[in-house]
Specification:
By secondary structure, this protein is mostly helical. Helix content is 81%, strand content 0%. The protein folds into 2 domains: 1-30; 32-97, no CATH class. The relative contact order is 0.09.
């Protein structure tokens, strides 16, 4: 329980610094909002990948065969690509208004 509390508090602190850094970056680079949004999405992907590697130690979970696991992985990749494109589009239009 103590570790979970530490993780939640550290997440809030890092999110706080992220918002401040994003505001300063947008002030400095006013014409590059789409690039900044792409960087945010890219680093979010890297963070999710690292978190998954830390949480899942069993290497057999990562194997994908010709079964339902392959279909689930393909569907997840498709949804992530569509979600990232939608998120970037939304962020770009949110900051351009």
């Amino acid at each position: 329980m103590l570790i979970l509390s530490f993780v939640k508090v550290s997440k809030l602190i890092f999110f706080f610094f992220h918002v401040i850094g994003q505001a300063k970056a947008i002030e400095t680079y006013k014409n590059h909002q789409l690039t900044l949004t792409s960087l945010i999405c890219f680093f979010g992907t890297i963070l999710s990948f690292v978190t998954t590697l830390v949480m899942e130690h069993n290497a057999s979970v990562w194997t994908i065969g010709w079964d339902m696991n392959l279909l689930a992985a393909a569907y997840a990749v498709r949804n992530n690509i569509v979600g990232i494109l939608h998120l970037e589009y939304s962020f770009y239009h949110l900051h351009s208004v």
